[in-house]
Amino acid sequence: MDAVEKEITLQDNIENPEFKALFSFIFPHLKLPDQKMLSNYILISATNEVQTTIKELACQDKIGITIAFDGWRNVVNQELMDIVFITSSGETLIWRADDINIERQRQEEVIARIHMLFEETKELNIRANRFS
């Protein structure tokens, strides 16, 4: 069982009264984290791990990646711009989704954001061949 599975099992049992009693008995001086604190830790840790993997895969592409964009509105009516890296082997890597609610109205700001992304890829040593 890997570390994430162990943490998820702990998260599932964290609110169980019997588990709390056992934990208090074994570790009387330690405070058991609540489910929200534990889930935030897991989410942040998993997100960082995925971002690191995406950066590594994009950097390792010798031919270079294609950066694709897509836009949509979410359930709270925010304008979002999705940024996707496509490797030379065709693998799709979801980079991120940016809130462009204000910029969506002005093309200049969206173009500036794309130029900033291009600079960001250069700083990360990610070779970008084209945008689509």
Topology:
Elements lengths: L2 H11 L3 H10 L8 H26 L4 E9 L5 E8 L5 E8 L7 H17 L4 E4 L1
Parallel strand pairs: 1-4
Antiparallel strand pairs: 1-2, 2-3
Helix pairs in contact: 1-3
Organism: Racocetra fulgida
Protein name: 18804_t:CDS:1
Largest sheet: 4 strands, mixed
Number of domains: 2
> Residue ranges: pLDDT <50 for 5 or more in a row?
3-8
> Helix and strand string, N-terminal first?
HHHEEEHE
Q: What helical percentage do the residues reach?
A: 40-55%
Q: How many separate helices? A: 4
Largest sheet: spatial strand order: 3-2-1-4
* Terminal Cα span: 41 Å
Mean pLDDT: 83
Organism: Racocetra fulgida
Protein name: 18804_t:CDS:1
What is the compact description of this entry?
This protein has about 130 residues and is an alpha+beta fold. It has helices spanning about 5-15, 15-25, 35-60, 105-125, and strands at about 65-75, 80-85, 90-100, 130.
Could you name the key traits of this structure?
132 residues; alpha+beta; four-stranded mixed β-sheet; 4 helices; elongated; 18804_t:CDS:1
Describe the fold and architecture.
Helix content is 48%, strand content 22%. The protein folds into two domains: 3-52, no CATH class; 59-131. Strands 3-2-1-4 form a four-stranded mixed β-sheet. It is built from four helices and four strands. It is α+β, with helices and mostly antiparallel strands.
